[in-house]
């Protein structure tokens, strides 16, 4: 193998490795560009449209309420305009996210907006027809509930898209870091292989040269019989053969052997060094991936490397500005022009238009290096040009993406600020700057929004820096005019350090003052209704007690015991229902009964009614701390009333002693078990529960069917009634 082939093969290997590194860089950039375009072109616009829907709902609800209160036609017009905007935002969201979201999510948004729109339209029509305030209030509550339902269903979806966007950007950054490490590692490998290959080629070349030098020295000393042992078939081998022939020829001449040998050795070294240097430089320049050409003082190209010739075969012999720019004069900013005029190296980036015979339009980074003669005069210049079209296009795309993203962020109506670990505001969107001034950046967030001299307690920004999670809370902010506004704040990490620690936190502040006022009005209305409902339960209880008293008075005029007992049983049943309403009146929860307390009060009333001595008949109650709805509590109370009454009347004749047990507890996951048992004489064996003759047992059967329960009777060791039914049982009290 020739020397130049050895050198060229080494440079080819290094060039291939460089191409691999370049390819990895290009592929990684395309992947990153795709990720960013996905975030900017799909995820964020759709999420912004969803936020616009949410904001439009609030504004529409506000103007509709104002129209209902004031009758101002401007508020009505604003509400109708907001409805039109809702249709546009929903259509835009569907367009952006048609291929991203679960169709159920899009359906939820469409259905929520449709429901909200129908309630708004109903409210406006009702107001136009002169509807009453009570009617308007009912529709207004529906509007608020529709808004709340929509927000609660859409907010997780919006938050998930933002999280997806953050994860995409985070992954892109990790890929950048990984690619940098990979490129650095491959560069080290390329450099190492190049050095090793250089040492290897150097040894291939230097070893025979040393032998040749040693032999030449011996020949120079007059030892013309010196044997040159070089078997390589390259130029050095050929030179060794020539040396051997020369030594033989020297034997036949009479000139001075010493002078001739010295001259031959020096000339050989010079020629070898010159040839090696020329070949090395030629190989380097020809293998260079950059365009390299030489121009004279008239800017005529007098030499060009292979890359340059491939780009424009007509380059050599022509003017550089003519062949590469299509101009008749020297280009503005030409690095060769600057190098010739200033006698210094110059660097610039130039645009190359598309021309016939060359590639399409492109951008090149050019370096102009002046060439000087022995007296230091500039005789020309070398220009090195590198294609940076892809880099320039990438920078342009990235710059456009950043501008688009900035425009989107600035269009958000929420206040957005980015805060560092010292609570300094490092960035703010336009709405924040509009309210708090253009010099907002650089100030402390707690000073701007709360007028504090130190960080707030608690502070969600601080919590984000500590655990890296998303935090939310409600607070008050001080407006520049001195008034206070309620705001909902959300903070999340927006940038991470290299050691995976939160570096920046972005904080969203949404004005919820109007919503808070609406909620307070609704809460006040609910409190009024609760008071009214309590009063109703109180009056029902009083009416039932009046009925019980009337039955008691009437019973005094009844002489027959049978009818007197019937009146007393009816009175006890009324008392059991009256106790239900009394429990509800005294309870904080107007829909559920504290069962434990109710059973004890009911059984105590029965013992008093029948005049039973608690020393003779012992009552044991095992009721878990459960609560039941009124629809279940009344039938259960009547069942307990009948079963305990029957036990008191019939289970213990002739003043027998005994025990009555009542158990009420949870069974399985969603069932309740009621057991009323006694150890008395038991029921008759011929008693048929499916078709009982007594009013009490028939009432027990009816009440059991009403609560969809299952009744079982156990006649062993007395009497045991077991009823199981399903009920949404409340939590046990601690």
Order of adjacent strands in the largest pleated sheet: 2-1-5-4-3
Overall, the morphology is elongated
- Ends distance: 93 Å
Low-confidence stretches: 728-734
CATH class of the largest domain: Mainly Alpha
Note the total helix count.
18
Q: What proportion of the residues form beta strands (DSSP E)?
A: 15-25%
Q: Rg from C-alpha positions?
A: 49 Å
Any guess at the CATH architecture of the largest domain? Up-down Bundle
**Domain unit count:** 4
CATH fold call of the largest domain: Four Helix Bundle (Hemerythrin (Met), subunit A)
Q: The biggest beta sheet, please?
A: 5 strands, antiparallel
Percent helix range: 55-70%
How many DSSP E strands? 17
Briefly note the structural class of the backbone: alpha+beta
Compute the average pLDDT: 76
